[in-house]
Amino acid sequence: MTLQNHLTALASSGLIHLAQLEPELEYLFRHALTQDAAYQSLLKTDRQTLHQRVGQVLEKLYPDQLDALAPVLARHFLEAGDQERASYYFAYAGDMALTAFANQEAEHPFRAGLELVTTGEERAHLLTGLGESLRRQSQFPATLQLWREAITLYQQIGYVDDIAWLYARLARAAWESGDHTGSLAVCQQGLAALANSFRPGCCGAWALWRRLRSCCTPAGLFLKSATTRSGWFTLTTSWSASCWSWASGKTSN
């Protein structure tokens, strides 16, 4: 019997029904209990095999729809026991949710991915994404904790640009929370931590410098036109000390 014959027989028995013909043929179980019973009747190894096949087929058939399918793919590969692919698609789904500013929806895939990954770049990326989703919801203490953990991981693997970007984000989150002095302190920490690691054209370092400048705009306006990416570090290093003195006095009032 063909697949269509099997589907027709199941529909005739009342177990499933035709949900739609276009754009894709779709059948659904008539009752959730029937679906659960059918699923649980499969051996665990068979369920894992089916989930893996479904995930692989979706990847192959719809390579241009992965943005929308990422949550579904993450779930299939998770149930298949393929943790590497599952964590990849959880991160993918979280990133897409952030892009759409669906900040609460982004939390679940990032948290699910973190349960699968304990070290390295991938965990740092998940921590960064979860922190961003929480920052947008004004959950600043949790954001700062997550990003500091991500910085530690990036330091372990030597990703200077990502470290600098995260220090800039930390400073922004602290500033948004109302802790202006803490924001400036984070900038100083970032500059100190990366003083010997910056390289020409380091985008993260540029972001960190911009965050420090924006925290202390009156003191830094004169540098706006004088500083360029290629030569900013010497100027910023000397400027940050005087800027810190000004800002410390300003924010303490």
Characterize the structure shown:
The chain has 253 residues and is mainly alpha-helical. The protein has a domain at 53-117. Helices cover 73% and strands 4% of the residues. The protein has 13 helices and two strands. The chain has helices at 3-12, 32-40, 44-61, 66-80, 83-99, 103-114, 120-135, 140-157, 160-176, 180-194, 203-215, 217-220, 232-251; strands spanning 16-20, 26-29. It has a two-stranded antiparallel ribbon. Helix 6 packs antiparallel against helix 7 (120-135).
Secondary structure layout:
Layout: H1 3-12, E1 16-20, E2 26-29, H2 32-40, H3 44-61, H4 66-80, H5 83-99, H6 103-114, H7 120-135, H8 140-157, H9 160-176, H10 180-194, H11 203-215, H12 217-220, H13 232-251
Antiparallel strand pairs: 1-2
Helix pairs in contact: 3-4, 4-5, 5-6, 5-7, 6-7, 7-8, 8-9, 9-10, 9-11, 10-11, 10-13, 11-13
Quickly describe the structure.
The chain has 253 residues and is mainly alpha-helical. It has helices at 3-12, 32-40, 44-61, 66-80, 83-99, 103-114, 120-135, 140-157, 160-176, 180-194, 203-215, 217-220, 232-251; strands spanning 16-20, 26-29. The N and C termini lie far apart (81 Å).
Features:
13 helices; 2 strands; mainly alpha; 253 residues
Please give the largest β-sheet: 2 strands, antiparallel
Mean pLDDT: 80
Cα-atom radius of gyration: 25 Å
Number of strands: 2
Order of helices and strands: HEEHHHHHHHHHHHH
Shape: elongated
Beta-sheet strand percentage? Answer: under 5%
Oligomer: single chain
Low-confidence stretches: 215-237, 239-253
